[in-house]
Amino acid sequence: MLCVTRAVQGIGGAGIAPSVMMAISDLVTLRERGKYQSMVALCWATGSMAGPVVGGVLADTNWRWIFFINLPIGVLAFLLLIAFWRIPNTDTSPEPWQKQLSRIDFVGAFTFIASVVCFLLATQWGGVRYSWSSPIVIALFVIALVFLILTIIVSWKLSSEPMLELDMFYDRARSALYIAVVAIASAMFANIFYLPIYFQVANGDTPVIAGAEMLSFLVPVDLVSVISGFIVSITGHYKIMFLIGTACIAIGGGLQTMLTIDSGRAAQVCYQVVSGAGIGFCIQNLFVAAQASAPQNRVMSAIALVSFFEYFGFACGIAMGGAIFNNTLQHYLHNTTTLSMSQIKEAQRNPDMLKNIQDPNLHRMVASAFASALQRTFLALVVCGCIAFICSLFLHWKIPPTSDDDDDSVNQQDRNSASTNDNSNTRQRHHVDEEQQLSVSEYNHAFG
């Protein structure tokens, strides 16, 4: 029941981010979109900073409210949309919903989702529930590959409007961007998911305090995201943001690999700030880069693809981190402690079990095993940052001029031309009036 209802919630949530970006692309020019997306990032910032704290409080009291809290927020957002959202008028009438529904590539969507799910299950279960050489894990990888090939065949040969538009990958800059999206999103969610575990283990924090300590990561993400969006709106240059941001992701991940159970709070905060700032330079500008590199008639497809690869990266970040963390933790606990296999499994599921260990020496050994496993997990962030940095080298430097911007320029020139013509006509009228006054004066002098 929980999995099904979470899937329904995910379907609704997955459509919100691309819908917001599509609405912005319809309302403002490409050059101005970074500024408005920064405003969206500011709203997201408020939620992301409050979320870990509120989630920690709810986890300590009644976990069911983690789901109930979505009801009043969703109803409020729904009412605000009904009250204030006005769709711009267009010359064309919308298609009937039956025709719109028939255009959806259900076969391609099914095969691709099946491929992603099998891949994530294989990475989650490998080395934890089953060995990497087990038939189940191998079968999942094979099935994932088969479904991916079927998706390509459906998109290439069978579907008139495929979910995965292959021609969007023909451009080098766009292909590099999509790879960078997965790497950046993976690094972001791996941090969000595994940093609280470090705080619980190294500092002995409760979930509430661990969520609050995540602000050292989340605040730079949000603050830098807003600032970089405004800079891109003013200058039009977005590639430099990716180069700086991806370098910071790699450096921040490298610094986090040095975190131990004895690391001070200053080091914990500073390392998070570097990683968070790196994510902030990139996360909102992903949509700007996608729209800047796509033809005008394919902007919506570009936004949808970035949103998809972003969510895919979120899932990969957790799955990738989980595979590294669980396998490494199991190895260290098995080789350095006297814990039974059932206790090791419990430690993998619940880091709070450390509080139940009374022996201080065993407690320190288990905590050190957690820290070592997290160091390996954070090493994956270095890899993600380096991959994203290399991909960023293939992006365009700045936003190209668009028809919207050209129209604004033409309109301004027309206004300037009209103003010049008005001034010229005014001077001509004054000149004629002066000539007429002079003629009347000469006539009166001659015949007065």
From TrEMBL:
This is Major facilitator superfamily (MFS) profile domain-containing protein. GO terms for cellular component: endomembrane system; plasma membrane. Keywords: Membrane, Transmembrane, Transmembrane helix, Transport. Signal peptide: none annotated. Its main location: membrane. The chain crosses the membrane at residues 40-59, 65-85, 106-126, 132-154, 175-194, 214-233, 240-259, 271-290, 302-325, 378-397. It is a multi-pass membrane protein. Residues 404-448 are annotated as: Disordered. Residues 410-426 have a biased composition (Polar residues). The keyword Transcription does not apply. It is found in: Endomembrane system. Residues 1-400 form the Major facilitator superfamily (MFS) profile domain. One of its GO terms (molecular function) is transmembrane transporter activity. The keyword Nucleotidyltransferase does not apply. It comes from Lichtheimia ramosa.
